Records
---
Amino acid sequence: MPISFGHSVMIIAVVAVCTYFTRAAAFVLFGGKREVPSSVKYLGKVLPPAIIAILVIYCLKGVNPTVFPYGLAEIISVICVAVLHIWKRNNLLSIGLGTVIYMFFVQVVF
Amino acid sequence: MKKTLKYAFIQTIPVLFGYLFMGLAFGILFEKAGYNFIWAFFVSLTCYAGSMQFVLITLLTGGASAIHSAFMTLMINFRHMFYGLSLIERFKKTGKSKFYLIHALTDETYSLHCLVKPKEGMSDKKLMLYISVLDHIYWITGCVMGALIGQIIPFDTTGIDFAMTALFVVIFVEQWKESKQHLPAIIGGLCAIISLLVFGADNFLPPALVATVLMLLFYRANMEKQS
């Protein structure tokens, strides 16, 4: 351990409590008998698709398009997943085959 | 019950691969930092956060203060504050299970809650609970195994974590097909890309979220008129 037992436990506890806080915040503020404001209801409806789009970019944040292989493995694999899913609409097939394609690219091709 | 559990398990398979691999990676790094599998078990049980647990390793090795640890956690997990909004109504009917469902609300579990709806005769509460517990078990297993076996893995698993990216892409396509309005997804994607270019990979998430929320509020009248 790089630091003391007590210090380690303290940091882990702070991270655990703060993580729970962020996950509970929406329920504490709007979960009781209080009426959810219309602007919050609106955000609850339009935010999920926006957040998913952000998370897709988040997954790809490590890609560097300026150096070889220019994020080609990621771009091709993401397109494969999307096309497969539009075509067959089978969650496991799109994710499974997409992942195999990506693993092939990073292990064998590039 | 068995039918719901089986259904929940099948839906969580992509997360199974993603979590086992990410957990393994975390466990190996955590062990290297000087924390054994018992620590890995308790961290994955109590913190239960993917990217945040990796940052936790740097907090520990750097001997961070309580305030610094709190700030980092609030910033990195800021997005979770919004996840609850779309689940308030569904969680209301879950009684005391709500406290655990909230604890287990990771990116992936949230995504599955959005994607997977109960089939006829299934309890929504049980389905969400099974999905949450299964995902949590995968994560704990991955983290503990990583700390235990280290680098002794029989085949090359490089790239298997792409399952997580693929999961988000699939959800993106699903939501795109289902909703008539594509502006929210476009706004989110553009804000993320611009923020990534401006703030870099480590810091882009909070500004991207703030910009997205502001823009969605700005276009509110426009979008409510259309729907």
---
Amino acid sequence: MIEQIIFIVISLFTLMMGWVVVSNNNLFHAALALMASFLGVAGLYVMLDAGFLAMAQLLVYIGAISILIIFAIMLTRRMMRTDESPFNSQPGLAGLTAVSVFAVIGFILWQMRQFWPVEPMEGVSLAFKTPVPDSMILDSVAAMGRAFVSPDAFVLPFEIASVLLLAALIGSIWVAWPKTEDEA
Amino acid sequence: MIPLSWYLFVAAALFSIGLYGVLARRNAVAILMGVELMLNAVNINLVAFWRYRAPDQPVGLAWAVFVLTVAAAEAAVGLALIISIYRHRDSVVAEELDSLKN
Amino acid sequence: MSFSFLEFLKSLVELTTGTYLRQVWGDAPWVDPTLDVIGALLVATFGLLIVLVLIWLERKVIARFQDRIGPNRVGGKYGLLQPVADALKLLTKEIITPAGADLWAYNLAPFLIVVTVLMMWAVMPFAPGMIGVDLNIGLFYVLAISSVSVVTILLAGWGSNNKYALLGAFRAVAQMVSYEVPMILSLLIPILLARSMSTVDIVEAQAVPFIIVVPLSALIFFISSLAEMGRTPFDLLEAESEIVAGFHIEYSGMKFAMFMLAEYASALFMSGLFVIVFLGGYRFFGLETYVTSGGFALGNLIGLVAFFIKMFVMFSVLVWIRGTLPRFRIDQMMDFNWKFLVPLSLALILVVALVDKALPVGVSAWTQAGVHLVSNVLVGAVALEILRWRGRKQREAQEGRQEGLESVGVEATVAEAVAH
């Protein structure tokens, strides 16, 4: 019961902040709401016993991506002084699309409702340690770490991800670098 | 106890909100923020399915981490592009960037 | 079990009051949440009140460095109540909101920064068994929370609607995001050696303190944590002579006090983290497991005292550095990070991992420590040699430019000599 109330509070918070992100005229406030929304998602991860991922969410999304976005907003900030509408010429059509996407997914979920388990499965443990140490329980963080470097599992995607990050690093520096004297 | 479908509904709603942001906003940075929301919604789904269906295998977590990585790369490149465009065109309104049109 | 005051006092000395109260109260459903709330309140109160001691200590020590007496009026000869007077002064000051401020950001920032700092104390093991919560991702938690505190600085800088505040916030964020990289990399090495991210496991793994095993990693961590806290010599974010006071220039009264509070609390936390990760935490020559013949676990108290002594020694080192070193220039600071600390810590991880893998299973802790120490010293020596070589080349290029054509011959011979 308490768990359900916590879930509802966290998810309402996440969704409301998400709505502020897409509707607020002030871009800086939108970025703040984006951070709050990320925080809510991290809360959902904690409820799903994925504490490692929750912390990664804080570190990557709030600590890095949001800060990048705020920097971009500040560097292009003449755009913020406008009192124009934050929307383009087709907010109605966009809203219709979004609502229908939600309707389709919701309809499918509703049709499939008897297949979705109510209880989370046993046999996992938790990035947040359980009080009873149990060597039989799988430690999800250690298992994930091994999976990343095991040739039977994810070593290839892992390496590709690292190459992707390097390419993104070099590429974004190259793209954002002032090319001529007058741009600098 | 929380049924799995609750997580899926929240993720669907967050995805739709993000989609609305991508489709309806003028500012390119705001569009990028919508994309980030959509990626987060996908991640909620991955983790929820992992927890309820296959908690003994780290697949769901691992893919969530990959999504995180790709999101970071996407944000870095996207924002670099936006800043570069702003330098050239003095605008980050997506509708005005139409020099390839016609 | 009924409550007895003597037993309660005994459990206070043994630092097992939580266990004792749980025995007394039985296992009613309200017991655990109540104990959790009490514990959280205690840790938070500690984190806030200890700042009063820190301010006094820093003012007193820095005064001695500068050949002054320091606070000596309020609260007796040693000025013990000076921080209380300071706090009262700040509390009674008018709270000013600058014109054109972004109210949300401006008002949220001081609260969030204190909250993030206090949250970090949750994984600090003060004594055996005395920890807020033993997460198995403890150090990762600390890093994640400290990266959130970067955001609050950006909030303060932007919300104040002041160019100095914004400049200070930009500097602070650039510095903190940059120095996070070597900090994470240098923390990976103790994690690798202890094979765990839990703070308790890391303390337990230090039969030999990690500062002896991997001194280079400790040095990198110390330097980057200095930058992370924004203390001298990395206090560019509040460089008074350049940008007045940085991101908190527009704050007054209690809001300003909250920034100061967060600064001191995080300085103490970082010294505590250094103690946990590199100085063996509450370990004190095995005395921390001491149990008297009457079955009285006095060791916990010894561990607590040992931890606090180590932590305050580390904090005094921070003050010492503040009293000694001048401030970096911003380009020097960035160069130092990206061209020296990051490559060095990457190389160090590689070496430590290889050495750790190459060591046969079952060798004694001291042998392992010796091998790691030698490899660390070698890496450090190579890094210094490269620096020396680069420095010499730069100096020669400069001297060559000054002396003009006649020095070209000399430079060539020197370059030849270096090459051989």
